[in-house]
């Protein structure tokens, strides 16, 4: 609450944490949005942006380890890789997603003149409330342990449920009666029923695709495209995932894309885990992609905002999600370098035909990508917002977009000049861009009170 745009930052953080356990964008929006969106509006943000913050942050929860929604389990089954390796591969991309969202919120807060929350509105947690946080921390810890140390999805789910139930009974007084327990089981049954319906629908769609021969034609198209530039092939796959994902859950979109392109996927020429996560990210990001942005449509009524406008705002907030898949295709260290964690903790490096050889990527490669992506997102988010220290001119915004995209190029001879140019643009604006605007002064005054 004490940071610029603190209410929106808190909403992003809460959705990220909720996403570690939920993994469903719409349920994330409904669960946390009823609390966070009114606070964001009260702090000074416009209704559409307030709803968009929650929609974008909830969307990121679907790629947030360790749950990542049901789609991560689908990936594990499709490529024959243990679930824990997929979770570790998603750690840095998930961090990248929320880094971009935080930056957009920061610049938008400065543009709209939204400072920190007033002291009296800042949340104050009592010791009892801090203890109750264990209800979420303990099950998450148990879930993570059984997924990593003893890779068993069944054990992870069972023991996570037992610990969640026990901790709720001990720490929540309102949960210590049979009626509350009954309602919890009924709610779980309804959620399970929804998942069963989705899986059944996926089966019908996949069957139609295979019987009609549509799968073969798409696979042939992908195989033909694979003979050309990799970037063109990736664009086609990304567009397919986004279009199919407009109105479908990410799990359904993922399955349709993978089944429809099954024989052509091998021709793309990149490791299966990389390509499947590429599809996953665009299937997820479709929930905030207009014109049918399901997460934005769920958040808009809570804020009393226009759903279409909320969708466009959410897509801007989720900008990183559109770039990350291309980044980890061309910079494999993003997905694979953290796999050495298994060796550090007494295990062995994963070896699978679905992955690259971990020894081929270095910490220097990963360090470069992290720094480059952070700088690129600073440039791109400020350019799309049109504001940093003060209002950015049109030429500045165009140059920032060019530099930001150039930094992410895999060719270092293009990326290094883009880095130098991007840093120069930031320095020039900071020190030669004139005095801070009246909005900046207002924010500074709020921060000092």
Task: Give structural notes.
By secondary structure, this protein is an all-alpha fold. The protein has a domain at 6-186 and 297-361. 73% of the residues lie in helices and 0% in strands. It has 24 helices and no strands. Helix 1 (6-19) runs antiparallel to helix 2 and helix 3 (47-60) crosses helix 16. The protein starts with 5 loop residues before the first helix and ends with a helix.
Beginning-to-end CA distance, first to last residue: 13 Å
Structural class: mainly alpha
Individual helix count: 24
Pick out the low-confidence regions: none
Average pLDDT for all residues: 80
Order of helices and strands: HHHHHHHHHHHHHHHHHHHHHHHH
Number of strands: 0
Binned, the helix content reads over 70%
Shape: globular
Taken as a percent bin, the fraction of beta residues is under 5%
Radius of gyration, in Å, reads 22 Å
Largest sheet composition: none
Summarize the model shown.
This protein is an all-alpha fold. Helices cover 73% and strands 0% of the residues. The mean pLDDT is 80.
What characteristics describe this protein?
449 residues, mainly alpha, 0% strand, globular
What's the structural blueprint in terms of helices and strands?
Blueprint lengths: L5 H14 L5 H19 L3 H14 L10 H9 L3 H7 L1 H22 L14 H6 L1 H15 L4 H19 L6 H35 L1 H12 L4 H16 L4 H11 L1 H4 L6 H14 L8 H10 L3 H11 L1 H12 L2 H4 L4 H4 L18 H23 L8 H14 L4 H21 L5 H10 L2
């Amino acid at each position: 609450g004490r940071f610029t745009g603190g209410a929106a930052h808190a909403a992003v953080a809460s959705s990220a944490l909720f996403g570690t356990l939920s993994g469903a964008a719409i349920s994330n929006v409904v669960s946390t949005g009823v609390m966070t969106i009114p606070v964001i509006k009260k702090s000074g943000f416009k209704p559409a942006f307030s709803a968009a913050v929650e929609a974008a942050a909830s969307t990121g929860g679907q790629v947030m380890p360790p749950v990542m929604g049901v789609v991560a389990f689908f990936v594990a089954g499709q490529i024959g890789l243990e679930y824990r390796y997929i979770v570790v591969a998603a750690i840095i991309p998930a961090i990248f997603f929320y880094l971009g969202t935080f930056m957009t919120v920061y610049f938008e807060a400065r543009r709209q003149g939204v400072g920190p929350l007033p002291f009296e509105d800042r949340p104050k947690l009592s010791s009892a409330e801090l203890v109750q946080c264990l209800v979420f921390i303990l099950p998450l810890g148990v879930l993570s342990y059984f997924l990593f140390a003893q890779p068993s999805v069944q054990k992870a789910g069972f023991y996570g449920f037992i610990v969640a139930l026990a901790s709720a009974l001990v720490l929540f007084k309102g949960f210590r009666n049979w009626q509350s327990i009954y309602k919890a089981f009924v709610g779980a049954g309804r959620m399970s029923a929804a998942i069963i319906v989705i899986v059944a629908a996926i089966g019908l769609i996949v069957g139609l695709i295979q019987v009609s021969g549509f799968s073969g034609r798409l696979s042939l198209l992908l195989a033909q495209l694979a003979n050309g530039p990799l970037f063109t092939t990736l664009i086609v796959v990304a567009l397919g995932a986004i279009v199919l994902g407009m109105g479908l859950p990410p799990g359904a979109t993922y399955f349709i894309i993978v089944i429809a392109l099954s024989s052509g996927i091998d021709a793309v020429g990149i490791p299966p885990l990389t390509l499947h996560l590429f599809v996953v990210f665009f299937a997820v990001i479709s929930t905030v992609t207009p014109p049918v942005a399901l997460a934005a449509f769920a958040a808009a009524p809570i804020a009393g905002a226009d759903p279409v406008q909320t969708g466009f705002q959410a897509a801007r907030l989720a900008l990183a999600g559109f770039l990350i898949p291309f980044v980890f295709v061309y910079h494999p260290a993003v997905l694979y370098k953290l796999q050495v964690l298994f060796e550090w903790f007494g295990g062995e490096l994963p070896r699978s035909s679905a992955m690259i050889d971990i020894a081929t990527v270095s910490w220097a490669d990963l360090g470069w990508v992290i720094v480059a992506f952070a700088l690129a997102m600073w440039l791109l988010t400020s350019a799309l917002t049109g504001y940093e220290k003060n209002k950015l001119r049109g030429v500045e915004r165009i140059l920032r977009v060019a530099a930001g995209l150039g930094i992410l190029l895999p060719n270092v001879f293009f990326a290094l000049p883009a880095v130098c140019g991007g840093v120069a643009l930031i320095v020039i604006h900071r020190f030669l861009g004139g005095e801070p605007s009246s909005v900046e002064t207002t924010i500074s005054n709020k921060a000092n009170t």
